[in-house]
Amino acid sequence: MNTNQSALVLHSGGQDSTTCLYWAIKNFEEVRTLCITYGQRHACETEAARKIAENAGVAFQSIDASIISLLSDNSLTNHDMIMDQEKPTDSYPNTFVPGRNLFFLTFAAVIARSHNIRNIVTGVSQADYSGYPDCRDTFIRSANVTLNLATDEQFIIHTPLMWLSKAETWAMADELGVFDIVKNDTVTCYNGIPAAGCGHCPACKLRNGGLEEYLRRSKTTINPSLPY
Ligand code: ZN
Questions:
Q1: What is the CATH number of the domain that holds 18?
Q2: Which range marks the domain in which residue 31 is found?
Q3: In the predicted model, what is the mean pLDDT of the chain?
Q4: Within-domain flag for 160
Q5: Looking at residue 227, what is its pLDDT?
Q6: What is the pTM of this model?
């Protein structure tokens, strides 16, 4: 495998990382996915990731990192906790899993290195994120430097969605020709319901709000006379 032409995609089976997977397939000759489980409420996310990778014709690997859920309490892994629907004014929502993306990127770098891959792709976004500090561009740049120093390698962490809104992420999926795959085959919902999901959890509100905005804009573009 040519180091510069291969990429490892952190893939959860959701809208963002699936769009990133197809972005990577367009931009690199060889792509493989890494799906990390950490005691989330629903296993169907991993199954969705496996099927999407299989249909895309790329290698799929999943690893169990359940220890992440033992390190702190959060509503994604603690099934007894009531999930915050909004971001509290003075703290992070209880869907925040402290350190998650740092762990994920570290696992990704170690596994990428073992496959002689130097490009790592992750779907984090600062523009339309849920208030998590480890989705910010500053953190990703810092982690990139740290991982390079830790391994004496030259990884490049790609974040194609960093500055995109959810509506713009839908537009990217459409431009990549995978709008229907992202719309129908992914699981973004915190309650583990595929496609449009439960409709009321924070992840569904963000995803579906972005989709409505994108569809409204694209219809306006196609025919400005339509009453949208
Ligand atoms: Zn939901």
A1: 3.40.50.620
A2: 6-166
A3: 88
A4: yes
A5: 43
A6: 0.89
Residue 203 lies in a domain: no
Distance 47 CA to ligand 1 centre (A): 17
Q: What is the DSSP letter of 86?
A: S
Handedness of CA 114, 99, 13, 163 (dihedral sign): negative
How far apart (Å, rounded) are the C-alpha atoms in residues 228 and 225?
A: 9
Classify the C-alpha dihedral 7-10-109-63 as positive or negative: negative
Residue 204 CA to ligand 1 centre (angstroms) = 4
How far apart CA 86 and CA 189 sit, in angstroms, is: 15
The pLDDT-based confidence of 112 (bands split at 50, 70, 90) is very high
In the chain, the number of structural domains is 1
User: For residue 224, how far is its CA from the centre of ligand 1 (angstroms)?
Assistant: 32
What is the distance in A from the centroid of ligand 1 to the CA of 70? Answer: 24
- Name the 3-class secondary structure at 171: helix
Q: Is residue 218 part of a domain?
A: no
Q: How far is the CA of 171 from the centre of ligand 1 (A)?
A: 21
Please give the backbone phi and psi of residue 145, each rounded to the nearest 5 degrees, phi first.
-60, -45
Within a domain: 223: no
Ligand 1 center to 200 CA (angstroms): 5
Cα(93) to ligand 1 centroid in Å equals 15
Q: From the CA of 149, how far away is ligand 1's center (Å)?
A: 39
